[in-house]
Amino acid sequence: MSTEHKALVRKWFDEVGNNGRGMVIDEMLTEHAIVHGLGPDLHGPEKFKPVHIAYRNAFPDITIRIDDIVAEGDMVAARWTGTGTHRGDGLGFAATGKQVQFHGMLFARVERGKLAEGWNSFDQLGMLQQLGVVNLPPGV
Questions:
Q1: What is the pTM of this model?
Q2: What are the chain's domains?
């Protein structure tokens, strides 16, 4: 099972992340899926789609590379690196045209061949700093 579960997560990052194929969200998430870590918990594919659209608008050329992936039972853990150019206002501020690189991790629970729950953590602060939206003093 772990091989199939890892393949599902790889497909998610490739199809939804890299290729921007929002239409596969319904195929890959259960109706009762819960997505944690992207703001308030998102319940079901319909609640996740606006977040996907916002990030694809902001970074239409985003590339996500899985650096490490492991699976045990119904859980998959992936560490990833994302790169892209900020070309849209989907995150609530004007495009900067800057390139960013950021890192994240995902724990996903698989249920009957679909993603049922996901815990996301990625360096949004570092991404916003690279875009010049957030400025912190050195060393903070």
A1: 0.92
A2: 2-131 (3.10.450.50)
Helix, strand, coil percentages (3-state) for the chain, rounded to 5, are 35, 40, 30
* Integer Cα distance of 30 and 96 in angstroms: 35
- CA 110 – CA 136 distance, rounded (Å): 38
Instruction: Take residue 139 and report the two structure tokens written for it.
Output: 């060393």
First to last CA, the chain: 43
Question: In 3-state terms, what secondary structure has residue 114?
Answer: strand
Q: Give the pLDDT confidence of 15-43 residue by residue, as tens digits.
A: 999 999 999 999 999 999 999 999 999 99
Report the alpha-carbon distance of residue 34 to residue 36 in Å, rounded: 6
Whole-angstrom distance, CA of residue 28 vs CA of residue 122? 21
The angle formed by the CA atoms of residues 129, 38 and 31, to the nearest 5 degrees, is: 155
